[in-house]
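hi got a favour to ask and not much time before my train. below you get a single protein, a line of residues and a line of whole numbers that encode the local backbone shape. could you go over both lines and see whether the tokens make sense for that sequence. a few lines back from you is plenty, here it is:
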Amino acid sequence: MSVEKNTRPLDEGIVKDFRSRMSYGSYLQLPLLLSAQQPVSQPEHHDELLFIIQHQTTELWLKLVLHELRSAAAWLREDDLGSALKAIARVKHIQTTLTEQWSVLATLTPTEYSQFRGFLGNASGFQSAQYRAVEFILGNKNAKILPVFDADPESRAVLELLLHAPSIYDEFLAYLHRHGYEVPASVLDRDVTRAHQFAPELVPLFKHIYEHAAENWAAYEACEELVDLEDNFQLWRFRHLRTVQRTIGMKTGTGGSSGVSFLQKALELTFFPELFAVRTEIGQ
């Protein structure tokens, strides 16, 4: 069928009356969602809308990341590794989208940002409770961050809960233990309120899994999925750093951090260090 006059006819069955039906807009709460962008610059700066939408969409994706990671942790507790890896695979795709988003914000020039940055006060991505929650569930726990959320009791409560809960790595190691792998007791009984630190006693276990992948395929696949997860997270951190550097240089962050140098230190943080350390040992 050809299209005449560059106008597509509507199918007869298309619903047009939504006075008593749920529509696309009502299902997605679009009036609420699209009214949530409230620039604070006076007069309103053209580029502030970009800045707001960039961060709001990031928070929406982080909400889904948390949803998937919480489910993955629960499935690991239930010994359902397949479902856990499916959730992690989805997170990896979300991470790709989040990382690519930085290229949009990077179109904001230093001059443009400087014209409305002062209106932000101390508001900063450093205060993203969902980002901190993702770090906590992956194992980068830091109780010193909690006071930042004292004015937001609900967010602080979520972070407190995650602080005292096993990370997804803790759950994976417990899964391996239940399935006959020799996970050291020092790792299984660690204080989960602290960030996971490199445990050399874990490396022989992963060396065995990697060097006998065919006989340990499920565990091997899970290890590689976690490696992908950390790689993606580090790429996001790096793109964040570079975007900030090209936009504000070495200025102090609006939230009071040292800015780029503070973000640089985040690149030294790790979630699953033994899964990277084992690569040096394989074949030796």
Observations:
- The chain has a mean pLDDT of 95.
